[in-house]
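Design job #97: recover the sequence.
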C-alpha cells in the first residue's frame, strides 16, 4: 500500500472532546456527560485547583457551567438512582448552605 492509498483512508471517529454529541442515555437515564460529571464529583482532590483543572481538561467545561450541571443533576431521580450515596451527600451539603444564608 503506497502513501497515496493511506491518505484515502477515512479518519477514525473522535469520541473525546467537548464538541462530542451527547451519547444516548444509559441504564439510569443519564447521558455520558451527566455520568462523567457525577464520576468527577465523586473523586477526591489533593489540591485546590486540581478539580477545576480536571473539569476543564476532561469535560471541556468552565467551573461555573460544571456546577450548574451538577446542581441540576441533584434534582433528577435518574442521578439519584445512578449514584445514591453521592447525590444524597451533595443534597445535604447544598441544603445546609442554603439554610446558612
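Job complete. Output follows.
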Amino acid at each position: 500500500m503506497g502513501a497515496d492509498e493511506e491518505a484515502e483512508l477515512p479518519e477514525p471517529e473522535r469520541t473525546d472532546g467537548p464538541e462530542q454529541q451527547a451519547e444516548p442515555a444509559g441504564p439510569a437515564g443519564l447521558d455520558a456527560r451527566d455520568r462523567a460529571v457525577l464520576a468527577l464529583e465523586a473523586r477526591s482532590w489533593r489540591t485546590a485547583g486540581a478539580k477545576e483543572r480536571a473539569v476543564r481538561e476532561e469535560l471541556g467545561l468552565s467551573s461555573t457551567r460544571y456546577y450548574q450541571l451538577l446542581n441540576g443533576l441533584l434534582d433528577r431521580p435518574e442521578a439519584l438512582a445512578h449514584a445514591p450515596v453521592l447525590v444524597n451527600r451533595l443534597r445535604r451539603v447544598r441544603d445546609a448552605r442554603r439554610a446558612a444564608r
